[in-house]
Amino acid sequence: MKPNYLKKYIISSYILVWALIIFVAGSASLVFHAPPVIMWIVRNLIAWSPTYLLLIGWRHFRPDETRMVFVKRCFSGKAELLPILFSFALTFGISVLSLFLYSIMTGKPMLSYINLGTTALPLSIFLSLTSGPTGEELGWRGFMREEFNKKYGFLKSSVCQGLVWCFWHTLLWVVDSEFTDWRAIPYVISNIVVITSITVLMNIFLEWHNNLLYSVLLHFGFNILYVFLDADIGFFIILTVLYLVITPTAVLVRNKTAERFLENNDSEERKIKE
Predict the structure, then answer these.
(1) What is the Cα–Cα distance from 33 to 190, expressed in whole angstroms?
(2) What angle do CA 36, 40, 44 make, to 5 degrees?
(3) Domain residue spans in the chain?
(4) Which chain regions cross the lipid bilayer (predicted)?
(5) Which burial class, exposed, middle or buried, applies to 112 when counting CB atoms under 10 A from its CB (0-12, 13-18, 19+)?
(6) Between the CA atoms of 111, 109, 240 and 162, what dihedral angle is there, to the nearest 10 degrees?
(7) Which tens digits make up the pLDDT trace of 126-176?
(8) Is 142:68 a contact under the CB 8 Å cutoff?
């Protein structure tokens, strides 16, 4: 029987992140009472777990290929300035639009929902970039995307990836969320929809450009606002609705583009034969 490397990786990543959250982050917070900056660094180390699990345990997940060949392939596509900027602007812009609509709904200015906290702004931005955006992508969009793409078509593969990535955060919803009452239900639903939708958008970019830099910036564009966000559940409901509109539209554009590409290829082949 052929080993199921994908299943092995997913189970291992879940076990590892739960162990790190409970024993490392839990000890740092509850036993050593670490200050916020130290806890942020601890969270970043945990966020990198999909990548160092993959690279340290490489022979258990991809024994027929070297790490270097894999990493080079993940960043082999050309990084073009406008698509790079657009990848960040897309997810960041959706979050800002959600906050704008939420501020209209509540009658309060947008900036009243931004809390810069006590950490210096450049350090906050740096720590946000070096957490999930740079720490998770090699595992999720590098390895896991390739494995799911071997099994399924674009949409099913993307949804499966999104759900795995989404529920990897399950324990964080419990220990690192302010929504512990009825709001926890729409918050979890929002996470499922939004994270899965972002995965679909990432995979469209990666299908076109084949460079994880795009998914890193899509991830960063999504994450950066939440470093400073102090909004209630209404914001997340609006965010969910926007992704439910934007993501299917992006899939339609992707499908139309793929159809035109195939039609052009068929046309070129017919000309060659003639």
Answers:
(1) 31
(2) 170
(3) 78-273
(4) 12-32, 38-58, 79-104, 110-132, 153-172, 184-205, 212-229, 235-253
(5) exposed
(6) 0
(7) 999 999 999 999 999 999 999 999 999 999 999 999 999 999 999 888 887
(8) no
